Amino acid sequence: MSDYYFEVDVLRDQMATKLSDNLEQTPYVFAEVAKDIVPDSAYFTEFCDLVDNLDGGQKEALQQFCAALAKHLSPEIKKETPND
């Protein structure tokens, strides 16, 4: 993938570093991105196509991060057994 500037003139590597260095703001940014790129939308399909273009190490890092985050966000469901 070639490097490019966003409208705010920030290189993507700089943006990634800023998000990693400023964890206080990162969940907010991720949540806002997630609201814009919802599953079953054209944006999500395009996003997935772009994910497919990542190199192997980037894909693996993204997969591990997303799996760990999904696990963290999923509440544990405790099944109560009846006392009968």
Coarse shape: globular
Low-confidence stretches: 77-81
Q: What Rg, in angstroms, do the CA atoms define?
A: 17 Å
| Element string (H = helix, E = strand) | HHHH
The number of E-state strands comes to 0
What helical percentage do the residues reach?
55-70%
Q: State the distance separating the first and last CA atoms.
A: 61 Å
Structural class: mainly alpha
Per DSSP, the total helix count is: 4
Mean pLDDT: 84
Biggest beta-sheet profile: none
What percent of residues are in strands? Answer: under 5%
Structural key phrases:
0% strand; mainly alpha; 84 residues; globular; single chain
What does this structure look like?
- The chain has 84 residues and is mainly α.
- Helices cover 60% and strands 0% of the residues.
- It is built from four helices and no strands.
- It has helices at residues 12-21, 26-36, 42-52, 56-73.
- The longest helix has 18 residues, at 56-73.
- The radius of gyration is 17 Å and the shape is globular.
- The chain starts with 11 loop residues before the first helix and ends in an 11-residue tail after the last helix.
